[in-house]
Design brief:
binds zinc ion, binds fe (iii) ion
Length: about 260
Protein backbone atom coordinates (compact mmCIF):
# COMPACT_ATOMS: atom_id res chain seq x y z
CA UNK A 1 0.00 0.00 0.00
CA UNK A 2 1.23 3.49 -0.89
CA UNK A 3 1.52 6.55 1.35
CA UNK A 4 -0.95 9.40 0.92
CA UNK A 5 0.01 12.97 1.80
CA UNK A 6 -2.36 15.96 1.85
CA UNK A 7 -1.12 19.09 0.07
CA UNK A 8 -3.37 21.98 1.12
CA UNK A 9 -4.35 24.36 -1.68
CA UNK A 10 -6.47 27.54 -1.90
CA UNK A 11 -8.60 28.04 1.25
CA UNK A 12 -9.88 24.54 1.82
CA UNK A 13 -8.81 22.13 -0.95
CA UNK A 14 -6.64 19.07 -0.49
CA UNK A 15 -4.49 17.78 -3.32
CA UNK A 16 -3.70 14.15 -2.44
CA UNK A 17 -0.19 12.98 -3.27
CA UNK A 18 0.45 9.23 -3.60
CA UNK A 19 3.94 7.88 -3.20
CA UNK A 20 5.85 4.75 -2.48
CA UNK A 21 9.35 4.60 -1.05
CA UNK A 22 10.66 2.46 -3.91
CA UNK A 23 9.69 5.05 -6.54
CA UNK A 24 11.06 8.55 -7.25
CA UNK A 25 7.88 9.23 -9.21
CA UNK A 26 4.61 10.06 -7.49
CA UNK A 27 0.96 10.69 -8.39
CA UNK A 28 -1.36 13.54 -7.44
CA UNK A 29 -5.14 13.74 -7.39
CA UNK A 30 -6.91 16.93 -8.50
CA UNK A 31 -4.09 19.48 -8.60
CA UNK A 32 -6.14 22.66 -8.74
CA UNK A 33 -2.96 24.65 -8.15
CA UNK A 34 0.51 23.63 -9.35
CA UNK A 35 2.55 25.78 -6.94
CA UNK A 36 2.12 23.79 -3.70
CA UNK A 37 2.65 20.51 -5.59
CA UNK A 38 5.87 21.78 -7.21
CA UNK A 39 7.10 23.06 -3.84
CA UNK A 40 6.50 19.67 -2.23
CA UNK A 41 8.14 17.74 -5.07
CA UNK A 42 11.18 19.99 -5.00
CA UNK A 43 11.53 19.76 -1.24
CA UNK A 44 11.24 15.95 -1.28
CA UNK A 45 13.29 15.53 -4.50
CA UNK A 46 10.50 13.66 -6.24
CA UNK A 47 9.10 13.82 -9.75
CA UNK A 48 5.57 13.56 -11.04
CA UNK A 49 4.50 10.55 -13.12
CA UNK A 50 0.71 10.59 -12.87
CA UNK A 51 -2.10 13.12 -12.47
CA UNK A 52 -5.57 11.81 -11.60
CA UNK A 53 -8.56 14.09 -12.16
CA UNK A 54 -12.02 13.44 -10.66
CA UNK A 55 -13.98 16.17 -12.47
CA UNK A 56 -13.65 19.28 -14.58
CA UNK A 57 -13.94 22.08 -11.98
CA UNK A 58 -11.08 24.57 -11.96
CA UNK A 59 -10.16 24.02 -8.31
CA UNK A 60 -9.34 20.41 -9.31
CA UNK A 61 -7.76 20.96 -12.75
CA UNK A 62 -6.14 24.43 -12.65
CA UNK A 63 -2.60 23.10 -12.10
CA UNK A 64 -2.51 20.55 -14.94
CA UNK A 65 -0.89 22.81 -17.54
CA UNK A 66 1.94 24.00 -15.35
CA UNK A 67 2.64 20.52 -13.98
CA UNK A 68 2.72 19.08 -17.50
CA UNK A 69 5.10 21.87 -18.49
CA UNK A 70 7.48 20.80 -15.73
CA UNK A 71 6.91 17.01 -16.15
CA UNK A 72 6.01 16.50 -19.85
CA UNK A 73 6.01 12.69 -19.57
CA UNK A 74 3.33 12.67 -16.83
CA UNK A 75 0.12 10.86 -17.68
CA UNK A 76 -3.08 12.77 -17.00
CA UNK A 77 -6.14 10.63 -16.34
CA UNK A 78 -9.71 11.90 -16.38
CA UNK A 79 -13.30 11.00 -17.18
CA UNK A 80 -14.15 10.14 -20.78
CA UNK A 81 -17.47 11.92 -20.14
CA UNK A 82 -15.98 15.36 -19.45
CA UNK A 83 -13.80 17.54 -21.62
CA UNK A 84 -10.77 18.58 -19.63
CA UNK A 85 -7.80 20.22 -21.35
CA UNK A 86 -4.57 18.29 -20.87
CA UNK A 87 -6.05 14.82 -20.33
CA UNK A 88 -3.86 12.14 -21.97
CA UNK A 89 -5.88 9.05 -20.97
CA UNK A 90 -9.70 9.01 -20.86
CA UNK A 91 -11.32 6.67 -18.37
CA UNK A 92 -14.63 4.84 -18.20
CA UNK A 93 -16.28 2.81 -15.44
CA UNK A 94 -14.19 -0.23 -14.53
CA UNK A 95 -10.94 1.00 -16.09
CA UNK A 96 -7.75 0.45 -14.13
CA UNK A 97 -5.10 3.09 -13.67
CA UNK A 98 -1.45 2.20 -13.17
CA UNK A 99 0.43 4.22 -10.59
CA UNK A 100 3.99 5.25 -11.46
CA UNK A 101 5.46 2.19 -9.71
CA UNK A 102 4.78 -1.51 -9.95
CA UNK A 103 2.06 -3.29 -8.08
CA UNK A 104 -0.57 -0.67 -7.20
CA UNK A 105 -3.58 0.08 -9.33
CA UNK A 106 -6.72 2.15 -8.88
CA UNK A 107 -10.11 1.25 -10.28
CA UNK A 108 -12.39 3.85 -11.85
CA UNK A 109 -15.98 4.22 -10.62
CA UNK A 110 -18.52 6.44 -12.36
CA UNK A 111 -19.92 8.81 -9.74
CA UNK A 112 -22.05 11.41 -11.55
CA UNK A 113 -24.02 14.04 -9.66
CA UNK A 114 -21.74 16.91 -8.59
CA UNK A 115 -20.81 17.04 -12.28
CA UNK A 116 -22.25 14.86 -15.04
CA UNK A 117 -19.02 12.93 -15.65
CA UNK A 118 -17.49 12.84 -12.16
CA UNK A 119 -15.37 9.74 -11.45
CA UNK A 120 -13.77 8.31 -8.32
CA UNK A 121 -10.64 6.19 -7.93
CA UNK A 122 -10.82 3.11 -5.70
CA UNK A 123 -7.67 1.53 -4.33
CA UNK A 124 -6.84 -0.90 -1.60
CA UNK A 125 -9.31 0.36 1.04
CA UNK A 126 -9.16 3.97 -0.14
CA UNK A 127 -11.47 6.05 -2.32
CA UNK A 128 -10.45 9.34 -3.93
CA UNK A 129 -13.90 10.81 -4.25
CA UNK A 130 -13.35 14.43 -5.31
CA UNK A 131 -16.48 16.47 -4.56
CA UNK A 132 -19.05 13.67 -4.26
CA UNK A 133 -18.97 12.87 -0.59
CA UNK A 134 -17.35 15.12 2.01
CA UNK A 135 -16.72 14.39 5.66
CA UNK A 136 -20.15 14.98 7.20
CA UNK A 137 -21.72 16.11 3.92
CA UNK A 138 -21.64 15.96 0.13
CA UNK A 139 -20.96 18.13 -2.90
CA UNK A 140 -23.51 20.42 -4.48
CA UNK A 141 -25.28 19.22 -7.59
CA UNK A 142 -24.06 21.28 -10.58
CA UNK A 143 -24.21 19.72 -14.05
CA UNK A 144 -25.35 16.27 -12.86
CA UNK A 145 -28.81 15.48 -11.49
CA UNK A 146 -30.12 14.97 -7.96
CA UNK A 147 -30.99 11.36 -8.90
CA UNK A 148 -27.43 10.70 -10.10
CA UNK A 149 -25.96 12.18 -6.94
CA UNK A 150 -28.27 10.13 -4.72
CA UNK A 151 -27.25 6.95 -6.59
CA UNK A 152 -23.52 7.77 -6.40
CA UNK A 153 -23.78 8.32 -2.64
CA UNK A 154 -25.62 5.01 -2.25
CA UNK A 155 -22.83 3.33 -4.16
CA UNK A 156 -20.29 4.76 -1.73
CA UNK A 157 -22.45 3.69 1.23
CA UNK A 158 -22.20 0.09 0.05
CA UNK A 159 -18.37 -0.03 -0.03
CA UNK A 160 -16.65 -1.87 2.84
CA UNK A 161 -17.18 0.11 6.07
CA UNK A 162 -13.47 0.51 6.73
CA UNK A 163 -12.90 2.32 3.41
CA UNK A 164 -11.12 5.66 3.85
CA UNK A 165 -12.69 8.53 1.93
CA UNK A 166 -10.19 11.04 0.56
CA UNK A 167 -12.39 13.93 -0.42
CA UNK A 168 -11.06 17.15 -1.91
CA UNK A 169 -12.20 19.77 0.61
CA UNK A 170 -11.99 20.56 4.32
CA UNK A 171 -15.67 21.31 4.93
CA UNK A 172 -16.22 19.04 7.92
CA UNK A 173 -16.97 21.58 10.64
CA UNK A 174 -19.50 23.39 8.50
CA UNK A 175 -21.10 20.13 7.32
CA UNK A 176 -21.61 18.82 10.85
CA UNK A 177 -23.56 21.96 11.74
CA UNK A 178 -26.11 21.04 9.09
CA UNK A 179 -26.00 17.36 10.12
CA UNK A 180 -27.22 18.52 13.54
CA UNK A 181 -30.07 20.49 11.95
CA UNK A 182 -31.20 17.20 10.43
CA UNK A 183 -30.59 15.03 13.50
CA UNK A 184 -30.33 17.19 16.63
CA UNK A 185 -30.40 14.09 18.82
CA UNK A 186 -27.61 12.16 17.08
CA UNK A 187 -24.77 11.65 19.58
CA UNK A 188 -22.30 10.43 16.98
CA UNK A 189 -22.60 13.81 15.23
CA UNK A 190 -22.07 15.73 18.48
CA UNK A 191 -19.00 13.66 19.36
CA UNK A 192 -17.65 14.12 15.85
CA UNK A 193 -18.24 17.86 16.02
CA UNK A 194 -16.14 18.09 19.19
CA UNK A 195 -13.31 15.98 17.73
CA UNK A 196 -13.42 18.07 14.55
CA UNK A 197 -13.20 21.37 16.43
CA UNK A 198 -10.16 20.14 18.36
CA UNK A 199 -8.43 18.90 15.21
CA UNK A 200 -9.06 22.18 13.39
CA UNK A 201 -7.81 24.27 16.34
CA UNK A 202 -4.61 22.24 16.07
CA UNK A 203 -4.49 22.87 12.33
CA UNK A 204 -4.98 19.18 11.48
CA UNK A 205 -6.98 17.88 8.51
CA UNK A 206 -10.21 16.05 9.34
CA UNK A 207 -9.99 13.97 6.17
CA UNK A 208 -9.67 11.23 5.14
CA UNK A 209 -12.67 9.92 7.02
CA UNK A 210 -13.74 6.35 7.48
CA UNK A 211 -16.96 5.26 5.79
CA UNK A 212 -18.19 3.71 9.07
CA UNK A 213 -18.07 7.18 10.67
CA UNK A 214 -19.91 8.71 7.71
CA UNK A 215 -22.64 6.10 7.99
CA UNK A 216 -23.19 7.22 11.61
CA UNK A 217 -23.03 10.97 11.11
CA UNK A 218 -23.44 12.09 7.49
CA UNK A 219 -27.11 12.79 6.73
CA UNK A 220 -26.57 12.33 2.98
CA UNK A 221 -25.54 8.71 3.60
CA UNK A 222 -28.38 8.19 6.11
CA UNK A 223 -31.39 8.62 3.87
CA UNK A 224 -32.80 5.28 5.07
CA UNK A 225 -32.79 6.29 8.75
CA UNK A 226 -36.29 7.16 10.04
CA UNK A 227 -35.17 10.34 11.86
CA UNK A 228 -33.52 11.62 8.67
CA UNK A 229 -36.55 10.76 6.53
CA UNK A 230 -38.82 12.53 9.03
CA UNK A 231 -36.64 15.67 9.05
CA UNK A 232 -36.50 15.76 5.23
CA UNK A 233 -40.27 15.31 4.98
CA UNK A 234 -40.86 18.05 7.52
CA UNK A 235 -38.69 20.49 5.54
CA UNK A 236 -40.27 19.49 2.22
CA UNK A 237 -43.75 19.55 3.81
CA UNK A 238 -44.73 16.38 2.00
CA UNK A 239 -44.16 12.63 2.16
CA UNK A 240 -41.04 11.46 0.35
CA UNK A 241 -41.33 7.99 -1.08
CA UNK A 242 -37.82 7.08 -2.24
CA UNK A 243 -34.14 7.59 -1.59
CA UNK A 244 -33.62 10.11 -4.39
CA UNK A 245 -36.51 12.27 -3.14
CA UNK A 246 -35.18 12.23 0.42
CA UNK A 247 -31.68 13.09 -0.79
CA UNK A 248 -33.05 15.91 -2.95
CA UNK A 249 -34.91 17.45 -0.01
CA UNK A 250 -31.80 17.34 2.19
CA UNK A 251 -29.60 18.86 -0.51
CA UNK A 252 -32.12 21.67 -1.26
CA UNK A 253 -32.58 22.32 2.46
CA UNK A 254 -28.82 22.79 2.92
CA UNK A 255 -28.47 24.89 -0.28
CA UNK A 256 -31.36 27.21 0.54
CA UNK A 257 -31.33 27.60 4.30
CA UNK A 258 -27.91 26.65 5.65
CA UNK A 259 -25.09 27.54 3.25
ZN1 LIG B 1 -16.14 20.51 -7.81
FE1 LIG C 1 -14.04 21.31 -5.53
Amino acid sequence: MFDIVPIPAFDDNYIWLLKRECSPEVAVVDPGDAAPVLAYLQHEQLSLGTILITHHHGDHTGGIRQLKGRFPHAKVYGSAHESIPGITDSLVEGAEVELPWRGDRLKVLDMPGHTAGHIAYLGDGVLFCGDIVFAGGCGRVFDGTMEQMAASLQRIAKLPEETLLYCAHEYTEDNLGFALWVEPGNRAIKARQKATQIARQQGKPTVPSRLSLELESNPFLRTQIPAVVAAAEKWAAMPLSNNAAIFTALRRWKDRDYD
